[in-house]
């Protein structure tokens, strides 16, 4: 992956959903049909998160006072590169180097005992050289595979925390910084995670490196389940250099069909986030993916997958015109299926919101198989 969100456009990874990395064991069995990793990876979210009710979209709630704003005017576009589709994603990054400002390489995870481990294809020097030659900033992303227990074991133990920080600082030598994609954390662990982030930020800054965080979308303190409840945006924003808000997976792999990122919900997320974190540290995570829901067989789909379905079944999608993305139904194998995905218009609606809220940028999950028209939208960002 969000978040995968200058206005930094971080093209996700998360989650991603789209997302949110699979464990090393799961990493060997990606969904080859869609170019996506298994559900734990591609969505950058958790089926543990309850479906948000319509009350979460209640516009009658008072608008909070925004956090302090830095007047920096540089717009950034950052993209996540997944290890399971690395060749295609790297090619996209290089092809669009005039729009992108940086990428995060989805290269590391946590073992069951909390050690940092490399995914297949990670630490590829040819990839690093190619991205550097394209003039892109490069971050190493570490994922917890949505396993809160692994992070708890690190964050709540002083010795383990110090060892984790030392490990990440050592690995940061080859990159511009580290991105933590620690998702699904328990509310009871939020202070411990904030402490870990503060210690890591200090250590990275001491060697001239940056710390980036993928964070859950939240509309306020009431979103206190595992995930958003485990991220204290204000505390994290005081330590990290960037927060990439994964404002997608409102509807997800195991939910009922619907928009991945309803625009009214995204605005509520931004209203809250800008009261907690300075705007110049915030990137809006946007989805470059959709979902194809079916009975017992739902999958994440890229724009290229959707075009194949539309062509095969000769379908014209419906668009509600509210920026939440086009959708359609079709019959396959005797079963009704429903697809929601993103296009230029839905991305433009999110970019408009990011500019309205004067964020630092956009984070998109993920590179590889995206709508070519997305780059026209991202290239239109204003200082």
Molecular structure report:
With 383 residues, the chain is of the alpha/beta class. The chain has one domain (9-290, 343-378): Alpha-Beta Barrel (TIM Barrel), CATH 3.20.20.80. Helix content is 29%, strand content 20%. The chain has helices spanning 39-42, 86-95, 125-133, 148-155, 158-171, 190-206, 233-239, 263-276, 303-313, 344-356, 374-378; strands at 9-11, 76-82, 102-110, 116-118, 137-143, 177-181, 210-216, 242-246, 282-287, 289-293, 299-302, 327-332, 335-340, 361-365. The chain has an 8-stranded parallel beta barrel, surrounded by 7 helices. Helix 4 (148-155) packs across helix 6 (190-206), helix 6 runs parallel beside helix 7 and helix 8 packs parallel to helix 10 (344-356). The longest helix is centred in the middle third of the chain and has 17 residues, at 190-206. 53% of the residues are buried.
Short description:
With 383 residues, this protein is α/β, with parallel strands linked by helices.
Q: What brief labels describe this structure?
A:
11 helices, single chain, globular, alpha/beta, 383 residues, 20% strand, disordered N terminus, four-stranded antiparallel sheet, TIM Barrel, eight-stranded parallel barrel
């Amino acid at each position: 992956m969000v978040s995968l969100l200058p206005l930094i456009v971080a093209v996700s990874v998360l989650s991603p959903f789209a997302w949110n990395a699979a464990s090393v064991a799961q990493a060997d069995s990606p969904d080859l049909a869609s170019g996506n990793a298994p559900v734990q990876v591609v969505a950058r979210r958790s089926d543990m998160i309850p479906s948000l009710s319509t009350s979460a979209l209640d516009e009658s709630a008072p608008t909070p006072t925004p956090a302090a704003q830095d007047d920096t005017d540089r717009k950034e576009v950052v993209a996540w590169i997944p290890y399971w589709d690395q060749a295609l994603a790297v090619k996209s990054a290089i092809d669009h180097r005039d729009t992108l400002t940086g990428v995060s390489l989805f290269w590391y995870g946590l073992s069951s005992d909390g050690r940092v481990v490399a995914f297949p294809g990670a630490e590829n020097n040819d990839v690093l050289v190619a991205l550097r030659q394209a003039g892109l900033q490069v971050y190493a992303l570490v994922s917890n595979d949505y396993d809160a227990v692994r992070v708890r074991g690190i964050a709540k133990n002083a010795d383990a925390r110090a060892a984790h920080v030392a490990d990440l600082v050592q690995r940061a030598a080859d990159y511009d910084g580290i991105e933590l994609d620690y998702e699904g954390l328990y509310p009871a662990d939020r202070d411990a995670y904030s402490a870990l982030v503060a210690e890591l930020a200090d250590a990275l800054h001491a060697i001239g490196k940056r710390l980036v965080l993928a964070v859950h979308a939240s509309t306020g303190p009431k979103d206190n389940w595992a995930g958003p409840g485990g991220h204290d945006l204000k505390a994290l924003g005081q330590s990290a250099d960037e927060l990439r808000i994964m404002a997608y997976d409102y509807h997800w792999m195991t939910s009922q069909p619907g928009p991945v990122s309803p625009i009214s919900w995204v605005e509520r997320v931004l209203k809250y986030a800008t009261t907690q974190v300075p705007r110049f540290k915030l990137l809006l995570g946007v989805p470059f993916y959709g979902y194809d829901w079916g009975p017992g067989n739902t999958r994440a789909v890229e724009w290229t997958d959707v075009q194949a379905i539309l062509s095969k079944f000769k379908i014209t999608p419906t668009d509600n015109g509210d920026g939440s993305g086009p959708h359609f139904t079709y019959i396959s194998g005797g079963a009704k299926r429903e697809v929601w995905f993103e296009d230029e218009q839905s991305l433009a609606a999110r970019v408009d919101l990011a500019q309205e809220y004067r964020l630092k940028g956009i984070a998109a999950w993920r590179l590889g198989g995206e709508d070519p028209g997305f780059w026209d939208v991202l290239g239109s960002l204003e200082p």
